[in-house]
Design brief:
The chain has 13 helices and 24 strands. The chain is an alpha/beta fold. The chain has a 13-stranded mixed beta sheet, with helices on both faces. β3, α3 and β4 form a beta-alpha-beta unit. α7 packs across α8.
């Protein structure tokens, strides 16, 4: 069933149940459904070209979801875009932008301002109004821009068939034990929109707030029982909780992590500061969830990311794509119904290569050692930059760290590191700790101090951008010291 039809179903059966909670108010299922229907009627009358997707860029999550569902209800394909994505729209064949007052518009295209009357906020919403229709919503596609670790955005599609495959896996069971899910990433991303879709499909409450103290305030005030975040986002929340907020978070039952790999000490920090029960997942935008498990079940297995889920297959192969025995480390390849649906692939046996190194245990646990581009052969020494970053951020006074590789003058790959310091950092002690580490200390070729590490929406380091930034800093330093 289409997500819009499920929102209407919950609006009929539990009209006053909160669908969305934000710091500025509550939107009930009835208010959301009526807003979706009003927006759909306006879009259907105002946008004449149905052959092109409509771009939606609205920072407010509740408005973004209402307008997005309204476009889907009206039969339009939708491009969900953040403000940073707008520069990539000329190649997306979109002629219409729906935007929020005060935000950017697109030259030479139809710009539609989000109408505040489409969405009524506040818990006490009247039950009056015309009956909601019960006809099935047309199948439509949703497009997202995603960059992963590359920093180079690519457009991916979520077809209605792919959504249905996702629901067949999760259904309402994924939220049986939860009422209010706080989704750290906004609905402009595939990660955020997918989770919001699942929460609303299950008839539960999707919560959104700005990162940091506002988000933790909302979680504490409204007894949020589930937080869905990337590892980097959860670590940032743990730091805020540790240093500033100290909220009891009495209602929080679980934190679900997905989007990137996290080291053991990072999970322990999240458990200590936010919630002891952590569920981790290995997934991709292209293939959906591949493996998942409560951390307690797999904590004893190094680099474990979960049990391979029903409906997904994982194999470990060598560079020639030959299957390796169980327990052998190699390249991960996966196939799933969602991957086939996402890309309209005719052959269901087509494999997807996410670019990760890993292995499978005898019990079906998937372990990930890192990405292909995150393992460098430095003069015969294999080095994981992810492990290097984990080591550096464990050092007192280091707030964040990012590593990348560049070809040195000697013809070998060099490891360049960027560090973000705390004001209280002891540089002499940090240098001593780095030099004392026999695995990483001798293999850092250059170290830079920066204000921030370039990261994507889910907190993944954008290594291409980091490389460009460090090369620029290095060139500036060289120019400043070169003889005049």
């Amino acid at each position: 069933m289409h997500i819009v039809d499920m929102v209407y179903f919950w609006a009929r059966t539990t009209p006053r149940r909160p669908a969305i909670i934000q710091p500025d108010g509550i939107v009930t299922y009835l208010a959301l459904a009526q807003g979706v229907e009003s927006a759909a009627e306006y879009f259907a009358a105002s946008i004449l070209d149905r052959s092109k997707p409509v771009t939606l860029s609205v920072p407010n999550a509740a408005k973004m979801l209402a307008a997005g569902l309204g476009l889907l209800r009206a039969g339009f394909d939708v491009i969900m875009a953040s403000k940073a994505d707008l520069e990539h729209l000329p190649a997306a064949e979109t002629h219409t932008l729906v935007y929020e007052r005060g935000d950017d518009t697109l030259d030479g295209r139809t710009n539609i301002l989000f109408n505040e009357s489409w969405l009524s906020t506040g818990a006490n919403v009247s039950d009056s109004g015309k009956p909601l229709p019960q006809t099935r919503t047309k199948d439509t596609d949703v497009f997202f821009f995603t960059s992963g670790t590359t920093g180079r955005p690519k457009r991916i599609v979520r077809t209605q068939k792919a959504w249905e495959q996702r629901i067949l896996f999760n259904g309402t069971s994924a939220f049986t034990d939860y009422e209010r899910a706080l989704i750290v990433t906004g609905p402009a991303s595939a990660f955020g929109f997918t989770r919001a879709y699942e929460v609303l499909y299950a008839g539960k409450t999707a919560c959104f707030a700005a990162m940091g103290q506002p988000l933790l305030w909302l979680a504490n005030t409204y007894d949020v029982d589930l937080i869905i975040a990337s590892p980097q986002q959860a670590l940032a929340l743990a730091e805020t909780q540790e240093k500033h907020t100290h909220y009891p978070l009495a209602g929080l039952k679980t934190i679900r992590l997905g989007g990137s790999i996290i080291a053991r000490d990072g999970i322990e920090r999240i458990r200590n500061q936010l919630c002891r029960n952590v569920v981790i997942a290995y997934s991709s935008t292209e293939a959906g969830i591949i493996a998942t498990a409560p951390y307690d079940m797999i904590a004893h297995i190094p680099d474990a990311v979960g049990f391979v889920i029903p409906g997904a297959e994982v194999e470990i192969v060598d560079a020639a794509d030959r299957v390796l025995p169980v327990g052998s480390e190699g390249f991960v390849r996966v196939r799933s119904k969602q991957f086939v649906s996402n890309f309209g692939i005719d052959d269901p046996n087509t494999w997807f290569h996410p670019g990760d190194f890993g292995w499978l245990t005898q019990e079906g646990v998937l372990c990930i050692a890192g990405r292909k581009g995150d393992v460098v052969n430095r003069g015969g020494v294999k080095l994981s930059v992810v492990d290097l970053e984990s080591f550096l951020t464990s050092c007192p006074g280091v707030r964040d760290a990012g590593a990348c590789t560049l070809m040195g003058k000697s013809g070998f790959e060099e490891v360049w590191v960027a560090l973000v310091f705390e004001p209280s950092v002891d540089l002499a002690e940090l240098r001593r700790q780095i030099d004392a580490n026999k695995e990483f200390g001798p293999n850092i070729d250059k170290l830079f101090v920066v204000e921030a590490i370039p990261r994507g929406q889910l907190g993944k380091i954008q290594r291409a951008q980091l490389s460009e930034m460090l090369q620029s800093i290095n060139q500036d330093a060289f120019s400043a010291t070169a003889p005049g």
